[in-house]
Amino acid sequence: MEAPFFSLMLLLLLVSSSPSAALLSAKGVNTEVQALIVIKNLLKDPHGLLKSWDQNSGDPCSWAMITCSPDFLVTGLEAPSQHLSGLLAPTIGNLTNLETVLLQNNNITGPIPTEIGRLANLKTVYLSRNKFYGEIPNSVGLRYLRLNNNILSGPFPSTSANLDLSYNNLSGPIQGSLATRYNVVGNPLICDANREQGCYGTAPMPMFH
Ligand SMILES: *[C@@H]1O[C@H](CO)[C@@H](O)[C@H](O)[C@H]1NC(C)=O
Ligand SMILES: *[C@@H]1O[C@H](CO)[C@@H](O)[C@H](O)[C@H]1NC(C)=O
Ligand SMILES: *[C@@H]1O[C@H](CO)[C@@H](O)[C@H](O)[C@H]1NC(C)=O
Predict the structure, then answer these.
(1) Within a domain: residue 85?
(2) Could you tell which of 33, 91, 116, 119 is best to mutate to test the pocket of ligand 1, judged by most ligand atoms within 8 Å of the CB?
(3) Contact (Cβ atoms closer than 8 angstroms) between residue 64 and residue 78
(4) What pTM does this model have?
(5) What CATH number is associated with residue 137?
(6) What is the distance between the alpha carbons of residues 43 and 83, in angstroms, rounded to a whole number?
(7) Are 85 and 108 in contact (CB under 8 A)?
(8) What is the tens place of the pLDDT at every residue in 64-116?
(9) Cα–Cα distance, 201 to 175 (Å, whole number)
(10) Distance from the CA of 198 to the center of ligand 3, in angstroms?
């Protein structure tokens, strides 16, 4: 009697201690772990901040700089002011439950991955004070987007978010923007160096929602 009972308890224990089992792919690998390991590998992390990001540990909710929902889905990547450099991997778009990305005050370069546009639950993205260049990808559901002090160029993005795009190299027009609030001070193609009027404010065409 004892041995089968013990095996059953062990099985229950194993099942109940694997909360991310729902995300196991056919090959038995957690897709969020895979995506985060690629992100780790493209970032340069001189202070070993991401050393707990271990492919074999299986549970990303126990890793530094990661926040999870109560049901163990990765909802936040939060590593501001950590001397990170290198690139932000496009596999960020595979973290389908992501709501918050805080990577401001680092030295990350390259383009902002267009894949973030896939993330339906993404609300807050702070990438201020890095070295991102290229265009701002579309991402419709955002509420807060701070990209100030980078080297971004291309058109003013169409999003209803609160936008801080100051100190980049964006071009206009702002007219018709959906932004709830915006700041584009310090973008020479839109705002002259000594003229701040029209460079920030609420949307020229107010949104009622
Ligand atoms: C990320 O998603 C893409 C597209 O669905 C897929 O092709 C790729 O294998 C995924 N990458 C990882 C590391 O999971
Ligand atoms: C970024 O890199 C520059 C040059 O390597 C360095 O001086 C600066 O302190 C770094 N900034 C951050 C926030 O890590
Ligand atoms: C700013 O962007 C324009 C075109 O969009 C480009 O010609 C110019 O070189 C850029 N300036 C800087 C400082 O990157």
Answers:
(1) yes
(2) 91
(3) no
(4) 0.83
(5) 3.80.10.10
(6) 10
(7) yes
(8) 999 999 999 999 999 999 999 999 999 999 999 999 999 999 999 999 999 99
(9) 12
(10) 21
Phi and psi, residue 76, nearest 5°:
-145, 140
Mutate to test the pocket of ligand 2, among 49, 83, 107, 132 (most ligand atoms within 8 A of CB): 107
Q: What total number of domains does the chain contain?
A: 1
Residue 72: closest CA among 83, 84, 58: 58
Cβ pair 125, 116 in contact under 8 A: yes
Distance 57 CA to ligand 3 centre (A): 44
Instruction: Return mean pLDDT, the chain.
Output: 84
Domain annotation covers residue 4: no
- Do residues 60 and 15 touch, judged by C-beta distance below 8 A? no
Whether residue 59 lies inside any domain: the answer is yes
Contacts of residue 11, Cβ cutoff 8 Å, sequence gap at least 6 = none
Domain that holds residue 184: 29-198
- Cα of 12 to ligand 2 centre, how many Å? 50
Q: Find the 123 Cα to ligand 3 centroid distance in Å.
A: 29
Locus of tokens 């089992």: 21
Atom of ligand 2 nearest to the CA of 83: 14
From CA 103, how far away is CA 123, in angstroms rounded?
14
Amino acid identity at 84: L
Domain membership of residue 118 (yes or no) is yes
